[in-house]
Amino acid sequence: MCSKWGTADILEVVKRTINSQIPPKMCVVKSASEDFSEKLSLEYEGGIQIELKIIDKRKDYKGIKMRRISGDHLVYNQLCQQLISCMSVS
Which residues form a coiled coil (predicted)? Predict the structure, then answer.
């Protein structure tokens, strides 16, 4: 179950899934110094930049937060829907 995995492990699975389903132009894992967590930064054609972060405020639950850094809102929304549909939790 993913809720027992570490943040880095979850981000690695997400990164592999994205690279195989909707490959970005650039994909970088960054450490976020303000909260000591890791983030996945994605860049797609047309200047769309997305940041994915694992949220684990509850002990038994983890989620993914997606944030648009730059690019068109409509294209971002379509891309997010594609990202969500290619990821499944088992």
Answer: none
